[in-house]
Design goal:
12-stranded mixed sheet, alpha/beta, 4-stranded mixed sheet, Formyltetrahydrofolate synthetase, domain 3, 3 domains
Length: 548
């Protein structure tokens, strides 16, 4: 289809051009003033899209979320989808584009994947500005007596580069600063990105930035961005980035694309502001959480919804036959007989069952979306649907958003509408009054299926310090692999009784949570042997190729 002018997309939500700041003809920033203007409208149904534990290639969750929004519009409802922005790291690394695909994607695809309106760049610059202020403070006499050994604030870059994980700065003599060990994390893991995603206003953004802690002073107090007189400049860099970006899907359905936090390292959800706007603009607001119910969905429930105050009506769990076979624990190679397929799918269904259980623990009905891939047989999909219903799904429908867009996702949309009509009793997983260690244990036991946690001595000391400083009522944000329900990517299926090793705990005071690192977690990924960026190019007419 031909792209609609973005002002026409906005009009479908009842918005005129005064609510927009145009970035060309097909994308726009939405004014923050809209929040107050739409608050009086009754909220629509709020639907979260998550998945079973994915394979490294992903299971098409973004494509399903977009296809679902399109299908609800096809059925006559006003619908809207909120998505995270694409990070350049995965784009040029393993996964390639992150804006859906086929007949269910965000358009223009090149804009959606290659920087959009510059929000991620603004986050990166604000993050690194604070890093520069820290170094300058040490160089200029260290008035706050910041202990260089305690500094936790690293640098950020939106490209995967393993050589920057651990570096030494300040070499070459006194004029070059104070030598110390530090490193880079990918921008999507930055606390500033989480702050942007969770802020509810410019005033909230400014206050959160001021709370960011960079290290500890010799007297034991946490040194903040406010004390370094940097928070105001950071807020100035982010003032436009806080406005959600309005785009459109392949069928002209509105999409708010905002926030880019990874789910394995951070909160893994689109912005609170986009959802607070969107729920009052549509009959159905579809939002996507990163990775499976053990990561993005758990953080959606325990962090994002606490901040937004929004109550979801149901959750969609994306499933593929590929992921079911992967989580059978047996590698399928070559042609398989029917009984082999049954065995692989049934063995992998344990992983799906645990994700459905996690959704039900939140008080929501779980609708399974069986995302059809080209190689899937009708037999495999039928069996997978049967297994999903046996595992306790409210409904399970085969969807083909890639190949058929809204038409191929109608049955799923009808199931979601039925689920949303059911009474829901959404609840976070744990109470904030619990001690931090108990919150970690609840997540490990109830969401992952672990037998318990093992706190490394540094993690135990950090927890004690945070509780002494009064941060014990914050939620926890666990950083772990997305390829398993556990902390170990090699534990496929539905592992049980394992012990989750907690290696490090650190405060994200601005974001308002405590980061808990489990297993082998790296804040800066590395490029694969054959990066997706090798296939991205310009054709003779200047058009971008190779994004999908």
């Amino acid at each position: 289809m031909a792209l609609l002018p973005i002002v026409d997309v906005a009009a479908s939500l009842g918005l005129d051009s005064s609510a927009l700041e145009l970035y060309g003809a097909y994308k726009a920033k939405v004014s923050l003033d809209l929040l107050a203007k739409v608050a009086a409208r009754p909220p629509g149904r709020y639907v979260c899209v998550t998945s079973m534990s994915p394979t490294p290639a992903g299971e098409g969750k973004t494509t399903v979320a977009i296809g679902l929004a399109q299908a609800l519009a096809r059925l006559g409802s006003r619908s809207l989808v909120t998505l995270r922005q694409a990070s350049l790291g995965p784009l040029f690394g393993v996964k390639g584009g992150a804006s859906g695909g086929g007949r269910s994607q965000v358009l223009p695809t090149e804009d959606a994947n290659l920087g959009l309106t510059g929000d991620i760049h603004a986050v990166e610059q604000a993050h690194n500005l604070l890093a520069a202020f820290v170094e300058n403070h040490l160089y200029r006499g260290n008035r706050l007596q910041l202990d260089p050994r305690s500094i936790t604030w690293r640098r950020a870059m939106d490209i995967e580069d393993r050589a920057l994980r651990s570096i030494v700065t300040g070499l070459g003599g006194g004029e070059n600063g104070v030598p110390r060990e530090t490193g880079f994390d990918i921008t999507a893991a930055s606390e500033v990105m989480a702050v942007l995603s969770l802020s509810t206003s410019l005033a909230d953004l400014r206050e959160r930035l001021g709370r960011i802690a960079v290290g500890t002073a010799e007297d034991g107090h946490l040194v903040t961005a406010e004390e370094l007189h940097c928070a105001g400049a950071m807020a100035a860099l982010l003032r436009a980035a806080l406005q959600p970006n309005l785009m459109q899907t392949s069928e002209g359905t509105p999409a708010l694309v905002h926030g880019a936090a990874f789910a394995n390292l951070s909160i893994g959800n689109s912005s609170v502001i986009a959802d607070q706007m969107g729920v009052h603009l549509a009959d159905y607001l579809i939002t996507e959480c990163g990775f499976g119910s053990d990561l993005g969905f758990e953080k959606f429930c325990d962090i994002k919804c606490r901040v937004s105050g929004l109550q979801p009506a149901c959750a969609v769990v994306v499933v593929t036959t590929r992921a079911l076979k992967h989580h059978s624990g047996r590698r399928a190679s070559g042609p398989q007989q029917d009984w082999d397929e049954r065995e692989l799918l049934r063995l992998g269904a344990g992983n799906l069952a645990k994700h459905l259980d996690n959704v039900r623990r939140s008080g929501l009905p779980a609708v399974v979306a069986l995302n059809r891939f080209a190689a899937d047989s009708d037999y495999e999909l039928s069996l997978a649907r049967e297994l999903a219903m046996e595992a306790g799904a409210f409904a399970a429908e085969i969807a083909d958003p890639w190949g058929r867009g809204s038409e191929g996702t109608e049955a799923l949309a009808e199931a979601v509408a039925r689920a949303c009509a059911e009474p829901a009793s959404f609840r976070p997983l744990y109470d904030l009054s619990l001690p931090l260690a108990e919150k970690i244990e609840v997540v490990a036991r109830e969401v992952y299926g672990a037998g318990g946690i093992a706190l490394a001595p540094p993690a135990r000391r950090s927890l004690a310090q945070l509780e002494d400083l009064g941060y014990d009522r914050l939620p926890v944000c666990v950083a772990k692999t997305h390829l398993s329900l556990s902390h170990d990517a090699t534990l496929q299926g539905r592992p049980e009784g394992f012990i989750v090793p907690v290696s490090r705990v650190r405060l994200a005071a601005g974001a308002g949570f405590v980061v808990v690192e489990c297993g082998d977690v790296r804040g800066m990924p590395g490029l694969p042997a054959s990066p997706a960026g090798e296939r991205i190019d310009l054709d003779s007419e200047g058009r971008v190729t190779g994004l999908q």
